[in-house]
Each structure stands twice: as C-alpha cells, then as structure tokens.
Amino acid sequence: MMRRTLLLGGVAATFGVGLLVPGPAPAVAAPAAGPTPVLAYQATAAAMRATGGAYAGWTGRHFLTFDPRGDGTAVEVVGDLTTADRIAVIVPGVDNTLANFTTGLGGVPRRAPATQARSLAAAADPAVRTAVVAWLGYDPPEGVGLEAAREVRARAGARDLALFARWLADRRPDARITLIGHSYGAVVVGLAAPSLPPQVTALIALGAPGMGADDVADLRTGARVYAALAPTDWVRRIPQVRLLGLGLGTRPADSSFGATALPTTGVEGHDFYLSPGTASLAAVAAVVTR
C-alpha cells in the first residue's frame, strides 16, 4: 500500500492505493480526514468544473470524491449524510466506470450506481433519516473474464472500502451502516468484512458469485449477512471452485453459506435487484432502515 494525495479544488484528499490494482486509475477511499462532507462536495464540484464535459453538469450533486483518471472513480451521496441515522453504501461490480456511473452500463439506467442509489433512497422508510452512497471507489474488472474470476481487484477495493466505512463511522458514530455489494462488488464487501468498524451492522450480497469466503463465519464479522440471487440470474452458472488463484468462494445465496435469504420476486436477471417494484429492493430498504 502506498499513499497518494489528490488535490480536489484546493482540498487535499489523502487516500490509499492498492499496489495490485491493474491499470492507471487509482482507487479513492475517502475524502481527507479533516473536511466535512460539505467541504468535500465543494472540492469535488470544483474538480468537475475543471474537468469539463459531461462532468461539469454533475456539480449540483453531492460527491465526496471524484477522479477522472483512467476508468475513473467517484463516491456520490444521496440524502443528508450529516444527519443520517442509517447509511447504505452500494458497491457495484464489473464494467462499472466513471463514464457509465450515471448512464449505466450499455446505457441502461437501472445498471447505473447513481440510479440504484436513488432507487434505494426512494424506497427507504421516510421516517428514518437515511443516506445512500454509490461507492465506485475501486477499479472493477472489465468484462466477465480472468480478472473477474480473481480476487486481486476486490482485495485492493476492500482495503479502500474499509477505510471509507471507518471515515463514515468517525463522522456518524451513532449511525448504522449497511454495505451492499452487487455482483463482483459483493466480493469487495466480503473481503472488507474483517476490517469494518462496529457501526457496519449489515452486509448484503446481490447477484453475487461469492464473497471471498466459504461461509458467514469465514467473513469474520459481527454484521448480519444477507443474500439474494434470482432464479433467472446467470451468476448461478458460475462454477464454485478455487484453483490457482481463481475462484471467489461459495455463493452467498447458497444455504451452506449461512446468509439470510432476501426475496427476489420481480427480479428478471442480473441487474434488477435495486429496481423499483422488486421484492429485493423493498427487502434491502427494510434491512437498511431497521
């Protein structure tokens, strides 16, 4: 692990960069230790204006971090993080980049981390002060290939996700935090589990090929673990093997893993878990706000 400092609109944001992350894009764990979320929002807005293009139009939203280099990274907040009693962090999977963070992979909005965060925020109990974070703070694999079958990028992302969770816990020590990993993002969540602060009370794996573990006990966490895998999700066809550095562990939706199953009525494949009208979205919202 080495340390880098990225200047965002005059605010120095120090973050960890996993040395094993392939490609030129650094992973951004969290804003600098000192600035409040509001200061971070101002700094990232300035960086977006300086970058220009489509990113200049994002300045009215709330980003804790933003880095357009390489495939890019971004961490967006939906809701008021400074008053939230419940915080959900969505970690996306393969092929997510800064370029499709808002538009979605293949131009499909439901695949976009930004859209998923807004759908979850809208489904949350309005009586509970909730903030939802779309955390593209790592460099996911490109496509369902060799990198997606290995934990290398997930381990680098897990280190930064744990740092981000601790950053949240330091600022909202009385809030409950839920980490939600979709697809390969669930591997990131699972590998981060042993290093998470106690404020993280729930981990959710959606459409997950694994969590880098054989079962819930192997995650070494006090958080409750939930999983959802739809009958029509192609992830069911991925072999559960570990050989020569390949393999992501047991599917968390398998009964042997020990996670609490979430309903999947209305989920039509791999990318619908956080879509409005699905039983999975309602169940995830209930876990977040419990």
Description:
This protein is of the alpha/beta class. It has helices spanning 37-51, 113-123, 152-171, 184-192, 279-289, and strands at 2-8, 11-17, 62-67, 73-78, 86-91, 130-136, 176-182, 200-206, 224-228, 260-261. The chain has an 8-stranded mixed β-sheet with strand order 3-4-6-5-7-8-9-10, with helices on both faces. It has a two-stranded antiparallel ribbon with strand order 1-2. Helix 2 (113-123) crosses helix 5 (279-289) and helix 3 packs across helix 4 (184-192). The longest helix has 20 residues, at 152-171. The protein starts with a strand and ends with a helix. The model is unreliable at 1-28 (pLDDT under 50).
Low-confidence sequence ranges: 1-28
- Largest sheet strand order: 3-4-6-5-7-8-9-10
Distance between the termini: 36 Å
What is the general shape? globular
Summarize the structure.
By secondary structure, the protein is of the alpha/beta class. It contains 5 helices and 10 strands.
